[in-house]
Amino acid sequence: MKTLLAVLLFASLAGAQARRAVIGDVEKPLRVAIAGLAHGHVDGFFRALKNRKDVEVVGVFDPDAALHQKYGERYGIAGTLFFRDLGAMLDKVKPEAVATFTNTFDHPMIVEACASRRIPVMMEKPLAVSMDHARAIQQAAAHSGIAVIVNYETTWYRSHAEMHNLIKDQKAMGDIRKMVAMDGHQGPKEINVPPEFFSWLSDPVKNGAGALFDFGCYGANLMTWMMDNQRPVRVTAMTQRIKPDIYAHVDDEATVLVEYPHAQGIIEGSWNWPFARKDFEVYAQRGYANAIGGNSLRVRLPGQQEESRTPAELAPDERDSISYLIAVVRGGRQPAGLSSLENNMIVTEILTAARESAKSGKAITLPAK
Questions:
Q1: What value, to the nearest 5°, has the Cα angle with vertex 164 and ends 328 and 181?
Q2: Which tens digits make up the pLDDT trace of 88-103?
Q3: CATH tag for 2-151 (out of 3.90.226.10, 3.90.1310.10, 3.40.50.720, 3.40.50.300)
């Protein structure tokens, strides 16, 4: 009996030590490298990290030494962490994940470098400037088995999660019939984005288009999510260059019509609005839900008057991009929904069809798969 008790006690202690070891590993900060400093959203990423202990920046790549100095001084990053060669950084610091803040055109290059080293990647929206680029990303990810996360600000809106739960999970309104996404602001130049950000946002090659890709991607992402990754039948778009003195080579106003077999979507992307907004409206057979920004939702259900709702808090690993990245890398979570590669391949298909439609003046029918 004593021998049995001793064995059980030893096993219990060993199990406890193993659990502590696992917990200890999880509590170590996630080793993240940053690829690119040309995307202005990198500022928000650095600011968010200041209040977190669960992520450690172990390397920063950008070919521009002036940006090394800018962000090194702004956020107190040691000069030894900066690299002008992506491969050299990845091989030296061996990050657990890479957060990408390059221009959109460079996304395939970042993903392919990370995929060859089995490093998961999170990138700022949109996924790609073309279907060729999107497929290159998809192939690299599939070959290596890495996770690819596409980060949108609107993914972390409580209003959108509440809307999705109401319409898709609770099935409180019936089938969707029309969606309207309104995303825009006064314009990159007008809101004083950094010069390195403006330079590629206003470049049709590096950005894919202007407001069409910069803001049109939000609506395409949300609509694809609400339609359960159903590809649209047809895409029609109109773009304008209202301020050619500022945006000489890209559109600054875009409207996209997205046709499904039994529903329609209207995507409004603008660099001309007097105020910034990211609102999303969904109208179904028996009700509607309108999300105003991230924290407000107006709902009308059958037999009821319209009501305003305060959406519930999101789960801890769904409240922001950093928490989600940790859940994917450390928790084995697969990117899904708005963040997924599957969704964003369709987003790219919508945007490229819209660009073609705006250029040709014709509706673009998407090929069947």
A1: 100
A2: 999 999 999 999 999 9
A3: 3.40.50.720
